[in-house]
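Table S2 (continued). Query chain:
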Amino acid sequence: MDRLFLDANVLFSAAYRSDARVRELWGLKDVQLVTSSYAVEEARRNLDRPEQREELERLIGRMEVLMSSPAERRLTIDLPQKDRPILLGAIQSKTSCLITGDFTHFGRYFGKKAEGILILTPSDCLRRRKKR
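Corresponding output:
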């Protein structure tokens, strides 16, 4: 079973619109979706409407949520301080992929491994899973 770590922007997108394609991640077979309390809080802060926050809670109820802060360590890639906990969470939770829509900070690493974690956009992840 693959373990996929979802960044805050993926959680946000899924909760923001009920017809967002990113929600297909929750329907994947043989996949455990994982995130962190850090990512959940970031998504929650950015959702405006109560029904969006309720949807976020429903979605994370179907995931594994890493509650502890990941231990800081040296990384082989350069990330802003606010994005480090996302990759560190993916490492700590032993996921195979980090799924993020953050083109600004993770874009140059899309389709590559960092610290043993494959970094993909949600659409690339879904495309790869459909090819299996």
